[in-house]
Design goal:
Number of strands: 6
Helix content: 40-55%
Shape: elongated
Strand order of the largest sheet: 1-3-2-4-5-6
Largest sheet: 6 strands, mixed
Strand content: 5-15%
């Protein structure tokens, strides 16, 4: 029988909004410890948990989570099955894998299936919180050695300089490119494996940086800055 836990807390947020997090692991002691760590951080609205993959998929389908932390080794449906089925159930929740396995093949496979991050269960609370921050900002959070050979989108030096000047992340520049292509928020979210809320947050930031009131004005100003 699946064991579910739900706690609610209102506070200031990591990013200005209250966050809702889903934890998926079949070790209750680990869930309790991680829940306590996360609730020590301002801005957590709710933490839900599930002990098996089947229950997790149901919660991802019916809940609106900002981020999910999942183990790979789960009863009923493992972490890979969850990642594979998320598009089918219509969930755009960003996923960070938190597992005991450090097998490079598992890391590569998780990334291939759309995970935004990968952490060892032995990671410190600071490392886990850093990974959550990164993923909520639209960045990947994988062990450094797994990123070698990964093809990253090309960004010219002037564009990199402009992005750094305005504190824009690589992911936000990617969102801007897709906005310029005329893609709606939902499609941008699907292409970049982001939640719809994260895409909206990125676009809001871009509007402020570009001093634009709408998408058309943002596109025009991006072109003026020479962003491809």
């Amino acid at each position: 029988m699946a064991v579910l836990a739900s706690h609610t807390k209102t506070n200031d947020s990591l990013h200005g909004d209250e966050l809702k997090i889903l934890l998926i692991d079949d070790h209750q002691l680990f869930l309790d410890g991680l829940t306590a760590i996360l609730y020590s951080v301002p801005g957590i609205q709710a933490i839900d948990s599930a002990n098996d993959g089947k229950t997790a998929l149901t919660m991802l389908q019916t809940g609106d989570y900002d981020v999910a932390l999942i183990d790979l080794r789960l009863p009923l449906a493992d972490g890979f099955s969850i990642l594979q089925n998320m598009e089918q159930i219509g969930s755009l929740t960003p996923v960070i894998v938190v597992t005991a396995s450090q097998d490079p093949q598992d890391i590569h496979r998780a990334k291939q299936y759309g995970a935004m991050g990968y952490m060892a269960k032995s990671a410190s609370s600071g490392e886990i919180l850093t990974a959550i921050h990164a993923v909520l900002a639209g960045e990947l959070a994988f062990p450094d050695h797994t990123l070698s050979g990964v093809r990253r989108p090309h960004t010219s030096q002037p564009q990199q300089h402009w992005a750094r000047q305005h504190n824009l992340t690589t992911r936000q520049v990617e969102v801007l490119r897709l906005v310029k292509q005329g893609l709606p928020n939902q499609e941008i979210a699907q292409q970049l494996f982001l939640s719809l809320a994260t895409v909206k947050s990125h676009i809001s930031t871009l509007f402020k940086v570009l001093d634009a009131k709408n998408r058309a004005e943002a596109i025009r100003k991006a072109q003026q800055f020479g962003l491809d």
